[in-house]
Amino acid sequence: MQQLLHPLCLTLAVTGFSLLLRPARRHRRDTALTALAGVYGFCALSFLVSLEPTWIHLGEVTNSHSIALLASFACVIAQISLQPVVLAWWILPPDAARRAARTSLLAGAAVIAGLVLLFVLLPATGPTTPQTFTARHLGVGVYQAYLGLYISAYGAGQALLVVGCLRAARRTDEVWVARGLRIVGAGALLTLGYCAIRLTALLAAVRGDAGIPAAVEHLAWACADGGTLLVLTGFLVPALGVHLVPGVRGWLRAQQQYRRLGPLWEVMHRSIPAIALQPGRRPTRVNLPVWDVSWQLYRRCVEIRDGQWALAVHLEPAVREASGTRHCGHGLRDGELAAAITADQLHAALAARHGGRRPAVPAEYADSVRHPDLRTPEDDVRELLRIAAHFTAAAQPSHRH
Q: What distance in Å separates the CA atoms of residue 154 and residue 193, rounded to the nearest whole number?
């Protein structure tokens, strides 16, 4: 059971750690995010050293066949001590969060120091595996103290996590955070089953009774690893909901906007290839950018504006006047009217450029009156999307012929 569930927990822990490391700049000002990355990192290490190949290799390299046990327990206690830090910075004022975090970390450091001291006192042992070590040494008094300290600290940390998560879930107004905290609380509650079984076996060993049945041993690991899976999943839910999901939505929105600007950009690029900031790249709407989508979208907007500037010498006043009369008759007003007229002007300017025609006194673009209101790149994207929509709509009849 242990060797089956440990790889699943290890995979989830590594995945969570990798995701949380990506916004590296935010770690400087977000203590909760840093602590949460530590939770996943120490959790991953604890499962890694508990895998039988790693356990055996560490024993051979260090000539201490039980060193992986100390490493695993120390990583788990570090993880347990960081979990309250995450909660504290999520739900408490900064000063109270600092005090709670300091207390939790000092308690974790004290437990790890106690584990190291007891580990030094453990009798030397031959080669072991994660499955056989506890069964072989459960009757040894020092190991009983060692295991008792670990299980007590682990159980206390998880019990505090259950209470803290339930309280925090009731206080927060963030739906994603509340859902995640309830999942974390359920997982921490499940791990208490592992603590109960381990303490029962420890007390039986102290009294000299027989060990626990194999089925109960499997149940203990199911509670420990199953609960850990829920805890890791629950802590990821707020991170995914608050950070990743909006990021994915923004990426998809930028992809859609990039595609919607495609027809206008392609026509301009065919007529004025010099607008491309990267000459030679294929002008297509199909091959959408995957990386740096926001930058690619911004660059496409700049190139369209450059195309407008190049076509300005071909703007005929009569086109603007006729287009304004027609679209006003259709009920368009303000920004929508300016976008529709500008789209017609671009169509006429492209045709005039192809025919080599230039008016004596070029007109201005209808959307130029709106330029002072375009204060951000997002404003410019929205304006160009309206122009592109009218530009594409105006081209549809010619496509049918």
A: 12
How far is the C-alpha of 154 from the C-alpha of 147, rounded, in Å?
10
Q: How far is CA 27 from CA 5, 33, 35, 339, in A?
A: 30, 6, 9, 43
Q: Is the dihedral of CA 205, 207, 208, 214 positive or negative?
A: negative
Q: Whole-model pTM?
A: 0.66
In this structure, how many other beta carbons lie within 10 angstroms of the beta carbon of residue 308?
23
pLDDT one-digit tens code per residue, 240-256: 776 677 778 888 999 99
Distant-in-sequence contacts of 194-197, Cβ < 8 A, 24+ apart: 194/220, 194/221, 194/223, 194/224, 194/227, 195/151, 195/154, 195/155, 195/158, 197/223
- d(Cα 72, Cα 50) in Å, to the nearest integer? 6
Spatial contact of 230 and 190, defined as CB atoms under 8 Å apart: yes
- Residues near 244 by Cβ (< 8 Å), separated by ≥ 6? 19
DSSP 41: H
3-state secondary structure (DSSP) of residue 19: helix
Which residue's entry shows tokens 């950070």?
A: 243
